[in-house]
Amino acid sequence: MNTALTRRCALAALCALPAALAPSFALAQDGGRPITIIVGSPSGGTTDTLARVIGRMMGDTLGRPVIVENRAGAGGNIAAAYVAKAPADGSTLLMSFTGHTINATLYKNLGFDPVKDFTPITMVAKVPSVLIARKGAPFSDTRGLIAYAKAHPAKLNFAIGAQGSSLHLASEQFKMLTGTDIVNVPYKGTGPALSDVLAGTVDLMFASTVNVLPHMKNGSIQLLGVSSREPLPQFAGVPPIAQTVKGFESMAWFGLFGPAQMPADVTQKLYAAVKKAIESPDYQERMRTEAATTVDMPPAAFAKFVAQDVQDWAKIIKASGASVE
Q: What's residue 27's pLDDT?
């Protein structure tokens, strides 16, 4: 068979591939085309930080550039809506957080379904938070905060990194359990919110341990309590809020999604690359240092977790009466 005929046969065989296999073929073969991870928050937040760390390691494994693109706003919904409409070929992914399942009930008109319109790939981390106060605040612990807030209703304010996030609902839970009137100040992401607390513009914030640790030793904020039930060794001397506020606990999760109907082999290939990243000694050490934990959660298990998390948060949100238009 001559060379020209061989090429024509090869081309015909390629064109005859079922359409459903085209996306997986593209992921496997297109080494030069970048993967874009969409993040629904500005740079500097936990979701953004994790996306960049995971993305860099995924790129090394897959042999493809991985780009992180920030599309902040609406509690992560702008980013999620964008990925929901993207081609299901593995080239556009979403790094999201607990707000993904919270928003299913909190927002009345999402324009997408957080379960049906996505392919869950895996969870990458679970992270507790820290209740922080601006430098110079007239209290130094949770008990003092509660006493001050009750004596001065609506005088203090909470920076809310993203409406619908676990950090937002942590502040709502705190106010509900303590009977305090503290005003929410919404932001488009954790980074800008934390910047205003550091600047003394806003009084209080629930921020993830990942974001708080770099500021622990410079005296720019006060650490009032951690949201985990038990003390965190990375935050020595900072007690759990539950020691003062009975029943209080808050934990955020972060995970990677693709658009709905992504082929199983593409999903598995991406999961394997993320799994390798989160199991690496460097990532494991970073998570330990930042008081975060990793969970090995294959796509099927993560899909089950996401569906259940929507139902769990729906009960809490409906009971609280919270909603966002």
A: 53
Structure tokens at 53: 């760390």
Tokens 């015909």 identify what position? 12
- DSSP classification of residue 252: E
Which string of b and e fits 86-100 if b means at least 16 CB within 10 Å?
Answer: bebbbbbbbbbbbbb
Q: CA-CA distance, 121 to 298, in Å (whole number)?
A: 7
pLDDT value for 31 = 53
Residue ranges of the chain whose pLDDT lies below 70: 1-32, 320, 325
pTM score of the predicted model: 0.77
Q: DSSP H helical segments within the chain, as ranges?
A: 3-15, 22-29, 46-62, 77-84, 99-106, 142-151, 166-178, 190-198, 209-212, 264-278, 281-289, 299-320
Query: DSSP code of 213?
Result: G
Of 97, 158, 132, 120, the residue nearest 292 (C-alpha): 97
Give the pLDDT confidence score for residue 30 in this predicted structure.
53
Under a CB-based contact definition with an 8 Å cutoff, are residues 211 and 47 in contact? no
Comparing C-alpha atoms, which of 137, 287, 261 is closest to residue 204? 137
| Strands 92-97 and 157-160, sheet pairing | unpaired
> Could you read off the pLDDT of 160-172 as tens digits, one per residue?
987 778 888 899 8
pLDDT tens digit sequence for 253-281: 999 999 999 999 999 999 999 999 999 99
Give dist(CA 187, CA 193) in Å, integer. 6
Counting residues of the chain whose pLDDT is more than 90, the rounded percentage is: 66
* Contacts of 227 by beta carbon, 8 Å cutoff, 6+ apart: 128, 129, 130, 131, 170, 206, 240, 241, 248, 249, 250, 251
CA pair distance 90, 273, nearest whole angstrom: 12
